[in-house]
Amino acid sequence: MSFFGFGQSAEVEILLSDAESRKRAEHKTEDGKKEKYFLFYDGETVSGKVSLALKNPNKRLEHQGIKIEFIGQIELYYDRGNHHEFVSLVKDLARPGEFTQSQTFDFEFTHVEKPYESYTGQNVKLRYFLRATISRRLNDVVKEMDIVVHTLSTYPELNSSIKMEVGIEDCLHIEFEYNKSKYHLKDVIVGKIYFLLVRIKIKHMEIDIIKRETTGTGPNVYHENDTIAKYEIMDGAPVRGESIPIRLFLAGYELTPTMRDINKKFSVRYYLNLVLIDEEERRYFKQQEVVLWRKGDIVRKSMSHQAAIASQRFEGSSSHPEARTPGQPSDNNSRQ
Amino acid sequence: MSDAAVADTRRLNSKPQDLTDAYGPPSNFLEIDIFNPQTVGVGRARFTTYEVRMRTNLPIFKLKESCVRRRYSDFEWLKNELERDSKIVVPPLPGKALKRQLPFRGDEGIFEESFIEERRQGLEQFINKIAGHPLAQNERCLHMFLQEETIDRNYVPGKWLSSPGLTVCLPSLSLTLGHTVGTLLRSSSLKRGRKLRAEGLGF
């Protein structure tokens, strides 16, 4: 970002004030690599300092202003030019002038709203980041620092089991049951498949977890399906009256919470696909949506918003703010 | 709402299985054998027929045991009928072996023993694959092929109505048919006065 050997340039670094104590979480980048980023929750303060180091200690650095921004944005891969910013905060750190020596500037974004979870998908990316900018006449010096945001929920009040009888007339009748309709990311799916009628030669049965990422609106809706897991639950031919148990531990898979219509831009939903395969490789299947939610490590029950802010002031930013209940259609996730 | 530290992974309650169900014959018995090839006719009018013997306990087949004689062109007819009328991806037949029908061959051509055996195996695989397909079992042509003495090529193609009963219309499982997906409703699921739902393709 500077002319080679020409004039003065600076190195910009962003440092968080609680870098020592703040937890970091792994998050996949666009090219599939896993990296660790500082983890934040909704309502937490983002504070730290921007350090400016002059490359040439003897020369001056002229600039048109220094600022730091906190941005939350959604980027659709097929429309890279347009970033949809749903959070945009800015703090000016220095007015236009010049520097003769390296300096640091403190900043604080208080109780920042972070309504959605960070997400890197097949066709869309939602990210939060700090961006420090030294404006200059010809080219700016910019430094970005990504953070990761998790959205937490509490145990839902209503979590009925899913129980259904399905079939192909005169051919295959089964009753499947899953113990819940909403599962947290470290939960266990406990269920069973009961065979009422078996007139085909079944070879084996599996349960798949399918992630469906939906981008676009109206006639341009695009669904990207990805099979996250395939788990065989039965090998061999069942007969009438047999009950096959299901026990599927979700912690071993790369899952995110269910995201419904995030900022009206995208959704991520999960489905359990029960598949029976017969001797001739014909596949009989039934798909069922399940809602996934993220459980906080330390969940404080019935904590009011005020109490959450208050505890932050005293305990620092490692406390977890108020948690929400997951998965209702008219949910917090559709916050403007 | 209790905040369980460890998830409850105990099995869900289920009805104990009836022992007659557990140890009785399975309701999916279907075996078709193709054997006893016989070459009939003389000279250039010769052709080979095969015995197609079927044993089953599936209620959709009228006869629990049947035995008919079919030739290769009958299998071709069945394949064409199914490709036209049903939505299934029909498995391939063993080859037509046109080269073997050319003159001036050193061997018996299509009446060569090894070739007939090869063809017999291919036909057996073909018919077993088809007869077990729930959608093919709905087609009249399959039942005529397997269980009627002769194939009436002037028949009226259509769906096979097994003994109509008051069967309940269940929410369906989906069945992948090669590359297409459909939910299957048999014609026997007609309830008195109730219209048959159209089979939907696409998922």
Automatic annotation (TrEMBL), chain A:
GO annotation, cellular component aspect: cytosol; endosome; glutamatergic synapse; late endosome; phagocytic vesicle; postsynaptic early endosome; postsynaptic recycling endosome; retromer complex
Name of this protein: VPS26 retromer complex component B
Stored Pfam families: Vps26
PANTHER family assigned to the protein according to its UniProt record, in alphabetical order: VACUOLAR PROTEIN SORTING 26 RELATED
Ranges for region Disordered: 309-336
Family the entry assigns: Belongs to the VPS26 family.
Record's keyword annotation contains Transport: yes
Keywords of this entry: Protein transport, Transport
Compositional bias annotation for Polar residues: 327-336
GO biological process, one term: cellular response to type II interferon
Highest rank taxon of the organism: Eukaryota
Claim: Protein transport is one of the keywords in the record: yes
Cross-referenced InterPro entries: Arrestin-like_C, Vps26-related
TrEMBL record, chain B:
Source species, domain of life: Eukaryota
PROSITE patterns: PX (PS50195)
Record GO cellular component, one term: early endosome membrane
Keyword Acetylation: yes
Ranges where the record places region Disordered: 1-20
Occurrences of domain PX (ranges): 28-152
Family, per entry: Belongs to the sorting nexin family.
Name by which UniProt lists this protein: Sorting nexin 12
Organism of origin: Monodelphis domestica (Gray short-tailed opossum)
Organism lineage: Eukaryota, Metazoa, Chordata, Craniata, Vertebrata
